[in-house]
């Protein structure tokens, strides 16, 4: 059995254990502590150090993944909860679609596990900048406290379709996109004098 097959086999056994049984009397799931599962910055899921190569298995784990208020990531089933390590965020936005024009446009993003999300009031966009390089890292909010980081190509598409809003009171130009009649800021520039 290859290392990848062994990782998949172990991950499948973990999934079976996590999904087994239901707590009696409506109790909360039992906390199992940390398990040897992680998600790399590139969105690759690992179990015991080996990548989980089957996307179907990754999707199963992703369906029970949650992030708490402190930023911890948990696999939560009716019976058990187990914390996993996530390097940055759990998912990567790998595709963008836009329909409509102007403020009424709708922007949809697809994650690396084929989940689609529309930019809207509940699924906002935020952009962080590296303190040393100034390089942007854009994120879209998902459900259950999770986020997806936009890959470079998707972010460039977003920038390419961006609108500019002049704010005379601050002397800045807000750059961003509209989706579901809401403006999502990507960045700001100083207005020309």
* Assembly annotation: single chain
Domain count: 2
Unreliable residue runs: 21-25
Q: What percentage of amino acids are in beta strands?
A: 35-45%
Classify the helix fraction into a percent range.
Answer: 10-25%
- The sequence of SSEs as H and E is HEEEHEEEEEEEEEHEEE
CATH architecture of the largest domain: Roll
Kindly, what is the distance between the CA atoms of the first and last residues, rounded to a whole number of angstroms?
68 Å
Shape: elongated
* Number of alpha- plus pi-helical segments: 3
Largest beta-sheet details: 6 strands, mixed
**What is the CATH topology descriptor of the largest domain?**
duf1285 protein fold
Strand element count: 15
Specify Rg, calculated over alpha carbons.
20 Å
What is the name of the CATH superfamily of the largest domain? duf1285 protein
């Amino acid at each position: 059995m290859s290392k990848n097959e062994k990782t998949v086999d172990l991950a499948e056994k973990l999934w079976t254990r996590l999904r087994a049984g239901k707590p009696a009397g409506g109790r909360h799931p039992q906390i199992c502590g940390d398990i040897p599962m992680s998600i790399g910055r590139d969105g690759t899921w690992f179990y015991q150090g080996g990548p989980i190569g089957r996307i179907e298995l990754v999707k199963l784990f992703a369906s029970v993944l949650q992030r708490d208020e402190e930023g911890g990531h948990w696999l939560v089933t009716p019976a058990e909860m187990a914390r996993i390590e996530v390097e940055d965020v759990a998912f990567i936005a790998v595709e963008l679609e836009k329909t409509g024009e102007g403020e009424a446009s709708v922007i949809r993003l697809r994650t690396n596990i084929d989940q689609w999300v529309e930019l809207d009031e509940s699924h906002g966009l935020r952009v962080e900048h590296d303190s040393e390089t100034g390089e942007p890292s854009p994120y879209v909010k998902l459900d259950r406290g999770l986020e997806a980081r936009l890959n470079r190509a998707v972010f460039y598409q977003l920038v390419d379709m961006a609108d500019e809003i002049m704010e005379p009171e601050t002397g800045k130009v807000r750059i961003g996109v509209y989706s579901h009649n809401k403006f999502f800021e990507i960045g700001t520039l100083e207005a020309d004098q």
